[in-house]
Amino acid sequence: AKRQGRNTFQWYTEGLNKRVSGRVRLRNALQHAIDQQQFELHYQPQIQDTSGRILGFEALIRWHHPERGYILPAEFIGLAEDTGQIIPMSEWVLRTACRDNVRLNALGFEEYVMAVNVSPMQFQRANFVTGIVDTLKQTGLAAPLLELELTENILMESTTKAIEILQMLRRLGISIALDDFGTGFSSLSYLKYLPIDKIKIDRSFIREVISDHRDAAIVQGIISMANQLQLKVLAEGVETQAHYAYLSKKMCDIYQGYYFARPMPIDELITFLHENEAA
Ligand code: C2E
Ligand code: CA
Ligand code: CA
Ligand code: CA
């Protein structure tokens, strides 16, 4: 039994070493990707309930690996956050998303709002707001055409400081969406104080909203709360006509999901817009 225990232990350390060296390799590969500009943004439309109009897009990062193809953010965002590589990456994301939105405008489309995800480390930096102001200036994007998506966890870190930052951003005309709503463990009381514009209902609640009465109760609760707090409410992960019909009946404002459109590269998005919107 001892022997077996020992072997088990060795097996674990070997596994751990492999994991660690896997992380080191990934970190190096990530640095290479940053240097070689292997990242791309894919844009997913957000659709208004009443008009069916596209209001804007969420920018989602992909790593276009020369051998592995597209790698999704779940595989690298966490590590980038740990190593600090998320900072140059986020700067690139913001700049590119703003620039592409200006480009859409120049092509004669109506004005769309570009939503960009903000990482915890990025939000905590002292120069977060000035960095955004600089990027808007450099790219020529009007502040009201930028929305920042933040999770409740980011905002709970230090609430008074977070409120100050959000107030600054909103005074500039930038709008704020609370992402993955309902998945954190924070209390609801902060909704009273946080200067935000929109709540995004996490897609884990939408998936079985039709068949699971518990999900239905939560989703209806969030929608009615948002309406009464005069916040916009968006449902993520709308995958079927049935999802859409249900949510629309429950007075949801905005939808995002595969039922309407998948995230797509800018060129594909332009084609999509030409087909779907009168330019
Ligand atoms: P998120 O902010 O919740 O983004 C929405 C995710 O849902 C995206 O996954 C999107 O592709 C996916 N999605 C959209 N519609 C549907 C649907 O109908 N069904 C299903 N099952 N999924 C749908 P993605 O692109 O893999 O991104 C995962 C997460 O990575 C994002 O979650 C966000 O937290 C993070 N992320 C993505 N891009 C960035 C970025 O530029 N910066 C930072 N800091 N985080 C990012
Ligand atoms: Ca998001
Ligand atoms: Ca989300
Ligand atoms: Ca509403």
From TrEMBL:
Positions of the EAL domain: 23-277
Protein name: cyclic-guanylate-specific phosphodiesterase
Residues of the full protein shown: 406 to 684 of 825
